From TrEMBL:
Active site, UniProt feature: H3, E80
Organism, as annotated: Lactobacillus equicursoris DSM 19284 = JCM 14600 = CIP 110162
Protein name: Phosphoglycerate mutase
Any one annotated GO CC term: cytosol
Lineage of producing organism: Bacteria, Bacillati, Bacillota, Bacilli, Lactobacillales
Residues that coordinate or bind substrate: R2, H3, G4, E5, T6, L7, F8, N9, R52, E80, V81, F82, Y83
Length: 221
């Protein structure tokens, strides 16, 4: 599940590993999400280690009527994508800088950029466009996603259904790689705040996303 709306979401600023609080609108929306999931049983709940995700998972936990959830475990591996020195910048700025670095028409439309140069080159170009070259590239992000899935598998050996709160671009990147409807090359819709993406993780460690960016009311107990 993606966290609720934050201050930087509202202001249109880049928010990767930097963190801003949930807005009043974000909290209000999450209370509706919590009510939609109130009668869905979860064996456990997890989140990334960023506060916006932690606050979100606690709102969902507090609203659930049928699950017995103890202390929330935080996984740094499920943090948002890291944007390096672009953190806190205007979102339009990072994508215009990326398109210029890629040598294509300057645009703030990230879908156009990805579909023009491909998702793998896109991550490399973002890192190159970052003045300090700290932003995560494809290899770094793929390795972190693999670690995240391995960490989740180890933690959920005895669990059947869990909820994990993560972040928009991280969930989207998982979707590009693991969603059955993605070709693995082009862009897919960005998850909305509070949306649910359902994945299946087998005992052998195979991971597949079967439902992507869905409103929580679509999920039944």
């Amino acid at each position: 599940m993606r966290h609720g709306e934050t201050l930087f979401n509202r202001l249109g600023k880049v928010q990767g590993w930097c963190d801003t609080p949930l807005t009043s609108q974000g909290i209000s929306d999450l209370k509706k999400t919590a009510e939609a999931l109130a009668d869905v049983h979860f064996d456990n709940m997890y989140s990334s280690d960023l506060k916006r995700a932690i606050d979100t998972v606690h709102l969902i936990k507090d609203g659930n009527r049928v699950s017995q959830i103890g202390k929330i475990k935080k996984f740094p591996e499920f943090r948002e994508v890291f944007y390096g020195s672009f953190e806190g910048s205007e979102i339009d700025h990072i994508w215009k800088a990326t398109s210029r670095t890629a040598g294509i028409r300057e645009t703030s439309d990230v879908t156009e950029i990805i579909n023009t140069i491909g998702i793998y080159k896109f991550r490399e170009v973002v890192k190159k466009a970052d003045p300090r070259h700290l932003a995560e590239n494809t290899e770094e992000l793929n390795l972190r996603m693999a670690r995240a899935i391995d960490r989740l598998k180890a933690a959920t050996q005895r669990e059947k259904r869990v909820l994990l709160v993560s972040h928009g671009d991280f969930i989207k990147t998982l979707g590009i790689k693991y969603w059955e409807q993605s070709d693995g090359l082009h862009d897919i819709p960005f998850p909305t705040n509070g949306s649910v993406t359902r994945g299946v993780l087998t005992d052998s460690g195979k991971f597949e996303i079967v439902d992507y960016n869905c409103p929580p009311e679509e999920f039944e107990a």
